[in-house]
Amino acid sequence: MPVSAADIAAETKKDPTLAGVLQFTQNGWPSYVDEENLKPYFQRKEELTVESGVLQWGLRVIIPQKFRQRMLQELYENHQGMNKTKAIARSYVYWPNLDRDIETYGKRM
């Protein structure tokens, strides 16, 4: 990972969306959310966990907004094609619209 777990945990607490997701994951989710930015996480609420302050969806680390560009750069450092890059990303990290962001980044390369 291009950033440490401690950095991800610290930034998760600062990220407006992920701070809410963290709070809900630790203390219980409401039965419904109106906020569009929370809906992707709400759909996965039963599969979200917190490990040392880091949100995870299964084994995938949920990356705060601040580190997403850096993560895309890391994924493309050894660019092996769009599909392979998506597969690698899906194995390790998550954020809403990850695939779209990979495609957009790849088109700019």
UniProtKB/TrEMBL annotation:
Q: What is this protein called?
A: Integrase zinc-binding domain-containing protein
Q: To which species is this protein native?
A: Elysia crispata (lettuce slug)
* Pfam families assigned: Integrase_H2C2
Residues in domain Integrase zinc-binding?
63-106
- Coiled-coil region(s) at which residues? none
Gene3D superfamilies per the record?
1.10.340.70
Task: Show the InterPro entries listed in the entry.
Answer: Integrase_H2C2, Retrovirus_Pol_polyprotein
